[in-house]
Write a structure and sequence with these properties.
single chain, about 0% strand, about 450 residues
Length: about 450
């Protein structure tokens, strides 16, 4: 297993210098940020600097291993490649996976024996520019990479605030400062890039729907491309949810009730057709994560993570006997949702510090969820869902994705990372329901655009 056993003096000095530089730049561009979100800008990116450093220290001195080191070592090789043959960089970067043996045998070449899948090579290439400007130092590369990928959560937060301006503080807590979300989208991980992709795609769709800025189609395409390579199954759920969101927005813009009822079925059919074609394209590009392979992947996760829990003392869980039929898997939805958002149980299921940390957050989220449900009432929640398409789309994505990762993970440590895309949308849904549940006279102050 690849690992880094200590941080060098050069790394610490460089990281300190980049931290100071980042803070200066953040203050310099702060006034360019919208008034609606400006007050959270410096605190959020300062917080991400802290979590990036914490992530690196935890992996070097506590976990003493992990995929982050694999991606970093790959990035170091491609960073050296940029310096070695800058004029031939395009050919090297887009070389076929089966032809990597043709790359120059420069420092770090040995890592190509380990980089056997498209996602690991993509992560290495994406991280390489950050390694280059960081003198190939792990801590500094982690910091710079994190500051870049942190834009994803910021864009998600920006859309939430633009839609519901009065709830900005609650959105900030659930999207920017939620500890699990912050720590596991820091560092050189696929989860960091996935949330960046979702954030860019979500923001691009918002700009297309609300401001008709078609230039954002390019950003959407780039976000979809990166997510297909790393975690295509996220798009299986996110794309349909966003199509539902888009249909709701288009319906809002049709003022005539007659035309709305006349046109809505055609809009729905168009989105279904588009979604089907996109689904097929994503699935064909997804390799081992194609739709046909999802059942075998779920079985593999169950088997491997159960083995780790039994033999290596890792914090695992089980959903009991599972029948891998559509009905059998669906019957596990309530348990899967509960384990994703509200477990591990404090003390009962925590075997180490990370799971205890996760257990405390899960317990607090459970208390908040119960409070919101009782305050709003199930009947009113259903009314609100049909009234607000934003809420419906966010909740559908959060719940279906949470079911998927809760059903497949079988390991609390892995689940902490896998569930990060669902957390901003689930906490946003709770926030929206909470604000709608206030007395009627206050609802006029909680308007969407």
């Amino acid at each position: 297993m690849l690992k880094i056993t200590e941080l060098h003096t050069l790394d610490i000095v460089l990281c300190s210098a980049y931290t100071v530089m980042a803070i200066i730049i953040l203050f310099a561009i702060r006034n360019q940020i919208s008034d609606k979100t400006r007050k959270y800008f410096i605190p959020y990116f300062s917080f991400k600097i802290i979590t990036a450093i914490a992530f690196a220290l935890i992996h070097v001195y506590y976990y003493k291993g992990g995929d982050t080191f694999l991606y970093f070592e790959g990035a170091v090789y491609f960073s050296n490649l940029i310096l070695y043959e800058p004029t031939n960089l395009i050919n090297h970067y887009f070389i076929d996976l089966n032809e990597t043996s043709q790359l120059p045998a420069i420092e770090g070449y040995y890592i190509l024996e380990v980089l056997k899948s498209p996602d690991t090579i993509f992560m290495s290439k994406l991280t390489a520019p950050f390694a280059l400007i960081s003198a190939n130092q792990f801590l500094t590369t982690t910091l710079n990479f994190t500051l870049f990928t942190s834009i994803g959560a910021w864009l998600i937060f920006t859309v939430f605030v633009n839609l519901y301006q009065k709830a900005s503080m609650f959105f900030a807590i659930g999207t920017l400062f939620y500890p699990t979300l912050a720590i596991w989208t820091s560092g050189i991980l696929k989860d960091s890039v996935t949330l960046l992709g979702l954030g860019v795609l979500f923001f691009a769709i918002f700009k297309l729907l609300y401001h008709k800025k078609w230039i954002y189609l390019t950003l959407a395409a780039l976000a979809i491309y990166s997510t297909i390579i790393l975690k295509p199954y996220v798009l299986y759920i996110f794309i349909p949810s966003m199509l539902l969101w888009a249909q709701g927005r288009i319906n809002q813009q049709i003022k005539s009730t007659f035309y709305k009822y006349l046109i809505t079925p055609f809009i729905a059919l168009s989105f279904i057709l588009f979604g089907y074609l996109l689904f097929n394209e994503i699935s064909e590009s997804a390799g081992k994560y194609s739709l046909e392979n999802l059942e075998s992947i779920a079985k593999g996760f169950h088997s491997w993570h159960s083995y780790l829990a039994e033999t290596r003392g890792q914090s695992g869980y089980t959903l009991g006997e599972v029948s891998y039929t559509p009905l059998g898997m669906l019957s596990k939805a309530p348990e899967s949702l509960f384990v994703t958002f509200y477990r591990p149980f404090i003390f009962l299921e925590t075997k180490n510090i990370p799971t205890l940390f996760e257990g405390i957050q899960s317990f607090l989220l459970l208390i908040i969820s119960i409070y919101v449900i009782f305050k709003a009432g199930l009947r009113n929640i259903l009314k609100i869902l049909f009234k607000d398409t934003n809420l419906l789309a966010f909740l559908i994505f959060a719940l279906i994705f949470a079911y998927a990762v809760g059903f497949t993970s079988y390991n609390f440590g892995a689940l902490s990372r896998y569930k990060t895309p669902a957390l901003p949308f689930f906490t946003a849904a709770l926030t929206i329901i909470y604000f709608y549940s206030k007395k009627e006279k206050k609802l006029s102050r909680f308007k969407t655009i």
